[in-house]
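pls design
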């Protein structure tokens, strides 16, 4: 029996692609760097903010100092625009509500930086009681390192066989494997079903309601 479901954020609970695209492109334009289309950002997102900025920069401009400068402008802009066009995927609120009613604990483990992760969860899911919400923090390795999953599990006091980890990317599936928990790949996110399959998703679902079927 699964007692804890841990969710990724971007591409799993909320479609954040447009606001991320707009914000990174804004930061790039402030330094005169070329911008990118939405579909390019699908491949840039998923490994944390530093990697997102690095991938968006030209290969000849990926110095630590440049990444830090662009990141600073991005964060300031994104914090004021992160909910402009982002939206919760169909059925997600209903899924989380039903899990809560069943007494199943819910957590979030994201590579989005921590402050934005917490603010977005509070904004989009004010009626859901999460056992732990964690994003990327300094000094803590990003996914697919399983540290963040272990932190959520510790807060819930559960064992690995009681956990289901849900995400939309190969990074998420590898995170679950590293933590030795079952994984669910969602087909509605930023990456492809083929990527989920290639990274050994335990289950692949095509609607939020399908997740309920797994735990039942």
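designed seq:
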């Amino acid at each position: 029996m699964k007692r804890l479901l841990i969710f990724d954020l971007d591409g799993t609970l909320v479609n954040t692609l447009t606001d991320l695209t707009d914000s990174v492109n804004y930061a790039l334009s402030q330094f005169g760097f070329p911008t990118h289309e939405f579909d390019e950002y699908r491949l840039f997102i998923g490994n944390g903010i530093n990697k997102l900025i690095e991938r968006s920069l030209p290969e000849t401009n990926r110095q630590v100092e440049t990444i830090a400068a662009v990141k600073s402008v991005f964060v300031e802009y994104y914090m004021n625009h992160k909910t402009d066009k982002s939206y919760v995927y169909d059925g997600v609120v209903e899924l989380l509500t039903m899990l809560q009613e069943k007494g199943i604990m819910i957590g979030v483990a994201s590579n989005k930086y921590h402050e934005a992760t917490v603010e977005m969860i509070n904004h989009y899911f004010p009626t859901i009681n999460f056992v732990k919400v964690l994003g990327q923090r300094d000094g803590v390795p990003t996914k697919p390192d399983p540290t963040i999953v272990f932190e959520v599990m510790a807060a819930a006091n559960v064992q690995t066989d009681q956990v289901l980890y849900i995400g939309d990317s190969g990074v998420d599936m590898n995170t679950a494997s590293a933590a030795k928990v079952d994984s669910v790949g969602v087909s509605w996110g930023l990456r492809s079903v083929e990527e989920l399959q290639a990274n050994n998703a335990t289950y692949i679902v095509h609607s939020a309601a399908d997740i309920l079927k797994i735990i039942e």
